[in-house]
Design a protein that fits this description.
Chain B: This is Vi polysaccharide export inner-membrane protein VexB. Chain B: It is a multi-pass membrane protein. Chain B: Belongs to the ABC-2 integral membrane protein family. Chain B: It comes from Thalassotalea eurytherma. The complex is a heterodimer of chains A (about 220) and B (about 260). With about 220 residues, chain A is of the alpha/beta class. Chain A folds into 2 domains: about 140 residues, Rossmann fold (3-Layer(aba) Sandwich), CATH 3.40.50.300; about 60 residues, no CATH class. In chain A, about 35% of the residues lie in helices and about 25% in strands. In chain A, strands 6-7-3-8-9 form a 5-stranded mixed β-sheet, sandwiched between helices. Chain A has a 3-stranded antiparallel β-sheet with strand order 2-1-4, covered by helices on one side. In chain A, β1 and β2 form a beta hairpin. In chain A, α3 crosses α4 and α4 runs parallel beside α5. The longest helix of chain A is centred in the last third of the chain and has 17 residues. Chain A is globular, with a radius of gyration of 18 Å. Chain B has one domain. Chain B is about 70% helix and about 0% strand. Chain B has a two-stranded antiparallel sheet with strand order 2-3. Classes of the chains: A alpha/beta (about 220), B mainly alpha (about 260). Chains A and B meet through α2, α3 and β5 of A and β1, α1 and α11 of B.
């Protein structure tokens, strides 16, 4: 369970403080694979970053006894001048992976970069970078994975592979997914949270949530 | 399966700093000159400058050989400016990494400081070897521990200023421009080419507030007691200044870091 307590988050702007959340209280239940639904700019990514500890709220707390991944979007933490392998080792070290060598070879196998794995990331295409970033995340065991539209990258073959991996993950761990692709949501998630106007609502039934989401 | 271990705070910081260390080294030495540039550049500068100044005003300054005079003036001052800039920039450079909750800005600062400190020590040692082996200068300071202390204090001032301006630049972008503006005159007011006694006594009160000048003059005095220390120089002032800056830097950090990376 992820407990959100009295969460207030705002960003300064030339029009004054822009509140994303104002005194929000919410419990995100565990043992669910949750789709996070909301319009553009509703604060999905902000909520993600807050849950993951990438950003901090102005007030309030987010508590959890589970291990959470970092918010995996296209190329978080990938350094263009380091090789793919060095980047993997970096991410492994930061996250305290116990066996770096094994982790390295797992990511290498998953990301299918071939020889380019030992070349600097700046020579990669954007698809290859996201393969690497996604691989780095799913090869570490977390209780909850925070995935931000990361499976919609790469070629068909990689997409299939990434989806299969996520389906497996959604069985043994939990996934919280931000996506606008309904087919993807139906594939991984069994329930949903709708984020609208700074409030969260949990729906145990995914289809019911999607119906309401369409209305928004 | 790769398991993310639970780590104690100390082990976590060690891991993060080690990972950042490799990363920052990779991005610091990317061109063909690589690490060697770190040594070659100051050597050329110091040789050229000490030659020019030697031609103008004789081969030593109040009992200090010209090369050593530059080694304890020009070198620490450019290292000071460089360290200040690097530490200040490190927070912005690593900003995407704060997506990992394990990485905090202090880790970037600490890593950048360690890299600066080590590379400065290496450069200093190499320059001393050059001076002894090739230039035949006897480098036997009268108070070696004093020199080490004062040189370290110059570096500490740079790191603490770097934390202040680096954090500030996250909120107000223009602070990094102010930082450059402040850095520019440092070479001329910090005793890189001159000593304070080269200046008229009327300007001493204005120049001597500068902790870098204080440390440079003190380290020259520690090298040779013949080097005349004017009344405006005081070790107590320098130590107080370092402690004060440390207090300011850490207080600002504690208050601002979460806000800084949440913008």
């Amino acid at each position: 369970m992820i407990q959100i307590q009295n969460l207030t988050k705002s960003y300064p702007s030339s029009l004054g403080e822009q509140y994303v959340f104002n005194n929000l209280n919410f419990d995100i239940p565990s043992d669910h694979n949750i789709a996070l639904l909301g319009k553009n700019g509703a604060g999905k990514s902000t909520l993600f970053r807050l849950i993951a500890g990438s950003e901090y709220p102005n007030k309030g707390k987010i508590k959890s006894n589970k291990t959470l991944s970092w918010p995996v979007s296209l190329s978080t933490g990938i350094h263009p001048q380091m090789t793919g392998r060095e980047n993997v080792r970096f991410i492994g070290r930061i996250n305290g992976v116990n066996d770096l060598v094994e982790y390295e070879s797992r990511v290498q196998r998953f990301a299918q970069l071939g020889k380019k794995f030992d070349l600097p990331v700046k020579s990669y295409s954007s698809g290859m970078r996201s393969k690497l970033a996604f691989g780095c995340c799913v090869e570490i065991d977390f209780d909850i994975y925070l995935i931000d539209e990361a499976t919609s990258v790469g070629d068909q073959q990689f997409r299939r592979k990434a989806r299969q991996k996520l389906i497996n993950k959604s069985k043994e761990a939990n996934v919280i997914l931000v996506s606008h692709e309904l087919s993807e949501i139906r594939l991984f998630c069994d329930s949903a949270i709708i984020l609208d106007g700074g409030t969260l609502t949990f729906y145990n039934d995914l289809e019911a949530a999607l119906a309401i989401y369409e209305e928004l | 399966m790769a398991v993310a271990q639970k780590r104690s705070t100390l082990v976590l910081w060690k891991d993060v700093i080690f990972a950042l260390w490799i990363r920052q080294l990779r991005s610091k030495f990317t061109d063909k000159f690589g690490v060697s540039w770190l040594v070659v550049q100051p050597v050329i500068f110091i040789l050229a400058l000490s030659f020019i100044r030697g031609r103008i005003s004789g081969d030593d300054v109040s009992g200090i050989p010209m090369f050593v005079f530059m080694l304890l003036g020009f070198l620490p001052v450019i290292q000071f400016m460089q360290a200040w800039g690097t530490v200040a920039r490190s927070i912005k450079q690593d900003k995407p990494l704060y997506a990992f909750r394990q990485v905090m800005p202090m880790a970037s600062f600490v890593t950048a400081s360690i890299i600066e400190c080590l590379s400065n020590i290496i450069v200093l040692i190499i320059l001393c070897i050059i001076a002894i082996m090739f230039l035949g200068i006897e480098i036997f300071p009268e108070d070696p521990i004093g020199i080490m202390l004062y040189l370290l204090e110059i570096q500490l001032v740079a790191y603490f200023l770097g934390i202040v301006t680096g954090l500030g630049a996250l909120f107000i972008e223009e602070i990094s421009k102010v930082e450059q503006l402040l850095q520019r005159p440092m070479l001329f007011i910090s005793g890189a080419f001159f000593t304070l006694s080269d200046f008229p006594e009327e300007v001493w009160p204005y120049l001597s507030w500068n902790p870098v000048l204080q440390a440079v003059e003190l380290s020259r005095h520690a090298y040779s007691n013949d080097f005349y220390l004017v009344s405006a120089i005081s070790p107590t002032y320098l130590h107080t200044c370092v402690l004060f800056l440390m207090f300011i830097a850490f207080s600002l950090y504690i208050v601002l870091w979460k806000k800084g990376i949440s913008r």
